[in-house]
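Quick one - first record:
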Amino acid sequence: MEACIVKNQQGRYETEKPVTKEQLIQCAAEILMAQFQRGEEICSAESASRYLLFALGIEEREVFGVIFLDSQHRIITFEKLFWGTVNAASVYPREIVKRALALNAAAVLLAHNHPSGISSPSEADKAITSRIRDALTVVDIRVLDHIIVGADSQYSFAANGLI
């Protein structure tokens, strides 16, 4: 996407020309995503949730992603790994383990969106989280949280005692 917003010398953002709501959201997502680059530390569930809202909240179908972290909980990368339909995505723990090992991750934050807008976890969400956690535990990689992104809210498994 061509730059629709520029940062001026005072550190404020300005539009070069009128933009649509979708363009503004995309630009905001790019600015937010730039804050979550390699080496940045995840310092709170709230900051991760805000990032994930922009990274996954605009998807029209279910997308499952993982924030891979080093031993100091600094970001290695965020990757969208699985795409599904409007209400489900097939997620394979083996593929998450392979990718985590390839990146030398020590911990992960799991995330996916609910295009329905409702962020409450389903039984399938709880089951896959447990399967992923069990698979990663075998290779000493911690699952710190699983965040479900809804239309205007997020659900944290860790904050609700499910991890």
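second record:
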Amino acid sequence: MHENTKRVLVTGGAGFLGSHLCDRLIAEGHEVICLDNFFTGARSNIRHLLGHPNFELMRHDVTLPLYVEVDEIYNLACPASPVNYQYDPVQTTKTSVHGAINMLGLAKRTKAKILQASTSEVYGDPTVHPQTEEYWGNVNPIGIALLL
């Protein structure tokens, strides 16, 4: 391994953003562990990387502990589309909370740098396009109204 080569974990690595991040990290010569439970990620997004000597695919859910040795962690694991995260809101919450706790614990144990990502959905349905850094969002605090 080259002295500047890092071992990088990308959770949600088979998703849209994660797969492109895996591509970039591989192109830069890093070793990449792509972790995904394939709830919304797709094997087709990373198929071209399978068999690459610096790429490893792990089918795993971030809500469960993970014991690997890494230098950096990009935690992108979580359904980002309202259709997907509303399908199983409890599991989505577990992914966001337990997943972040597990990845922070891994980062602490391995002294790895970590990037915790979030979907823009946390800002609600925007009233301003495009959004500036100063925009605070338009969040509905009571959630979806259910008609009974």
